[in-house]
Amino acid sequence: MANIKDIARVAGVSVATVSRALSTPSLVRPATIERIEAAIADLNYEPNHLAAGLRRQRSDNVIVAVPSIFNPFTSAFVEGIENVARANKMRVLLGITEGDIDTLNKYVSMIAGKQADGMILLEKTLPDIVRNPPTKSKMPPLVAACEYPPDITLPRVRTDDHEASALVVGHLAELGHTRIAAITGPLDQFMSKDRLSGYKLGLLRARIEVDEAIIATGDFSLQSGYDAMLRLLDADPQFTAVTCANDEMALGALSALQQRGISVPDEMSVTGFDDLRFGAFSSPPLTTVHIPTVEIGEAAMRLMLDSLLQPDQVSASREVILPHRLIVRQSTAAPKKRRKA
Amino acid sequence: MANIKDIARVAGVSVATVSRALSTPSLVRPATIERIEAAIADLNYEPNHLAAGLRRQRSDNVIVAVPSIFNPFTSAFVEGIENVARANKMRVLLGITEGDIDTLNKYVSMIAGKQADGMILLEKTLPDIVRNPPTKSKMPPLVAACEYPPDITLPRVRTDDHEASALVVGHLAELGHTRIAAITGPLDQFMSKDRLSGYKLGLLRARIEVDEAIIATGDFSLQSGYDAMLRLLDADPQFTAVTCANDEMALGALSALQQRGISVPDEMSVTGFDDLRFGAFSSPPLTTVHIPTVEIGEAAMRLMLDSLLQPDQVSASREVILPHRLIVRQSTAAPKKRRKA
DNA sequence: TTGTAGGCGTTATCAT
DNA sequence: ATGATAACGCCTACAA
């Protein structure tokens, strides 16, 4: 492979000029640039990014740490990050952790190892370095999305899940429901807790008492929504609506209801959360809260770019909150028929 | 940040020994290794991957080029690649192309620029370099998945979509259907053509004549499946089954049928393709063909590792074909009722 | 506007 | 088993 020296020789200039022609063309005479570009085309030259990175001490990569990408919420998030990264000449390194904290910590150390310049997190656990900042070396640029407790001091982007959940419950209450069940996410995740507390807030506002007997816990998967729905149905014959902490579980719940022959929304109203496109084509189409997932990724990447530009502004930990909105489809309606036991 | 020189000094050895302790410990005396490891822990040393890469002429990254990751099929594929990459100390660089050939070609040139060692493709178009191999420099390691025509000479992994489609049609024919519609993918994609020809093969085997009037084209999206279903319904009152070229479109079709009040499977049988987990929880659950998407990614990454190990074996372009299998759920049944006009 | 040269942090070759 | 040292290819003062 040709290198910058070859180009310099062929173009009859010094390597410095070639380097400048590539990175700061304004400093080079147009005629010279032309000769250099000719040489580049001629020799099929491609700058060695490793060498440049070594010299400039950065890789132009950003790690995205997620438990798994095999899930529409996460992949939309990653897509958003990639969009902005690409537009800014950065690359996305995929860091799948499977929820393992050691793996996550290893990804963090890749930053010190210059494999990446920073990391965007969509994880339920924080890497150790956040709680134990390094004394000698400096803190790597980190951006958090969605999942984290309020006391950490990272730049972060999220939606107001608390209010969003309350909003859904409000919608059901307005329709006339007075007994509203919930299927939550795993309660070791901050996001799940937030959505659960929002559910309770919604009930409070509607002057409905919380009944723990009709709160079931899932793990955000279709199957867990299905299972949780069956558990609720068996536990209580009275409730007429159920709010699920994400669309996947809501779709699972829909499937369970269909199997039990309980009609939605006549006998049971069901709501989701996230607004996956699958929810728009379920039977019936799912009432849900739109979460701007792609935009969350984009905002996170922008925060990352900010951190990268101002390495010392660590304390300027900004928080971006993106708007949600209620999407009413056909899975919710006023309670009509009594459910048959 | 501490570097290898610092470690050498603190441990009282040369840089060469430190390097060896890290990469080939068997060549270093255990006692020495211990001193080195102590120094590493002490100084919080992390090897600079950029420097190592420059020296060794590789980045340990592999690019995955996909039109979009925001889709369960693709994300499963990427997850499979990441699994194997991680196990082999390689990283996945996400290359989203949005179907743009220039973007794709740029990703290819990143290999020459040492940002990555090779590329795995899940695209409907091939990068230029495949048709015009470079004369001076050597061909970058490329692995293709699923989408490509048979005449190219890349290592590749795929399923037998042709037979799989025929299998689905066979299933419907066995149930007694004689008028079977199809919703295909975009016909500029090889994968779509393959699935379409498999559909025709299935009809042939069942001695059913092909009727182009009940073949509609979609773009693999939910919405397009929904739209295509409505078009078919309006065009022909007779058919009793429809096979869709992927699960997303089948789910869209299900939604259209539900809206028209046509019951599945009593009045209409519907089949999908891919076996997304959403299909298992639709109403009714979707009969489909299981495609081992994650495994396809894993196999592709293994082919990549092979190519990387034997840079000259370009001609040894292996092809891996992974098995599919029919998943019969409740969206297919013997034709019963007549559809109402 | 252009050139010279030092150095980024490693690995690998060749000695010892 | 260990050490000295020359690359790897680029960027960026500094000099001209």
TrEMBL record, chains A, B:
Record-linked Pfam families: LacI (PF00356), Peripla_BP_3 (PF13377)
Keywords for the protein's UniProt record, in alphabetical order: DNA-binding, Repressor, Transcription, Transcription regulation
Superkingdom of this protein's organism: Bacteria
GO MF annotation list: DNA-binding transcription factor activity; transcription cis-regulatory region binding
Alphabetical list of InterPro entries matching this protein: HTH_LacI (IPR000843), LacI/GalR-like_sensor (IPR046335), Lambda_DNA-bd_dom_sf (IPR010982), Peripla_BP_I (IPR028082)
Start and end residues of each HTH lacI-type domain: 2-56
Name of the protein: Transcriptional regulator
Organism: Novosphingobium barchaimii LL02
